[in-house]
Amino acid sequence: MVSKLQVIIALLFGVVGVLYQVTVDTTTWTAKQQGSLFTSPDMLQRFITNPDQVQKWFPMVSQFKSADSRPFGVGKKYQAIYDLPILGEYVMLLSVVEYKINHIITLESNSLLRPTLTINMVEKAPNNTILTFSMEYKRSSALFQWTLGPLLQFLTRQQMQRSLFQLRLIFPI
Fold first, then answer.
1. How many CA atoms lie within 13 A of 149 on its CB side?
2. Is residue 34 part of a domain?
3. Around 117, how many Cα atoms within 13 Å sit in the side-chain half-sphere?
4. What SUPFAM superfamilies is this protein classified in (predicted)?
5. For 86-100, how does the pLDDT look when each residue is reduced to its tens digit (9 = 90+)?
């Protein structure tokens, strides 16, 4: 005889399986933050693309280093190392997939969450740059987007706000 609990568990597994297979738009839970910095786009780009400086403005990364000897541009690879509580060290390989000098930098990873970070710089006035961070997690399953998507958006936005705060301390008025 099948109990009600077994039927509920079987239905739950069926729903999870369907949600895993259904694909949805990955831009729904994109995290975005914008701020104004008192520096030129050229100076800002030189600073944020220097692997030795990343920990200063993006404190979530414990180490950031070049993974190849190519010059900065599309195809350049980096290694980001995170120290995660309980889990320990996590290494993520990132590639530059879009680059327009002093304007846009897009980094992408094929790691578990498939993050894509876009950094956009627009000169508002001389020595005044609008910096926009945008992070999209490209795992397209409904299960991921409807469960972890909102949480990751919230946590990522907090880290982006922290990064903008750090950059404002580095580039004061």
1. 19
2. yes
3. 20
4. Bet v1-like
5. 778 889 999 999 999
With a threshold of 0.90, does the pTM exceed it? Answer: no
SS3 category, 147: helix
Residue 80 lies in a domain: yes
Q: Report CA-CA distances (Å) from 103 to 122, 130, 170.
A: 6, 10, 20
For residues 92 and 63, give the distance between their C-alpha atoms in angstroms, rounded to a whole number.
Answer: 11
- Is residue 7 in some structural domain? no
Tokens at 29, concatenated? 């839970």
Q: What is the DSSP letter of 23?
A: B
Q: Which residues are CB-neighbours of 31 under 8 A, at least 6 positions away?
A: 133, 134, 135, 136, 152, 153, 154, 156, 157, 160
> How do beta strands 115-125 and 63-66 pair?
unpaired
User: Is residue 53 situated within a structural domain?
Assistant: yes
CATH number at residue 47: 3.30.530.20
Range of the domain at 62: 27-170
CA distances from 97 to 33, 72, 94, 102, 141 (A): 21, 11, 9, 15, 23
* Number of separate domains in the chain: 1
Per residue in 56-87, pLDDT (tens digit) is 998 888 899 999 999 999 999 999 998 877 77
| 103-111 own/partner pairs: CB under 8 Å, 24+ apart | 103/41, 105/45, 105/48, 105/49, 107/78
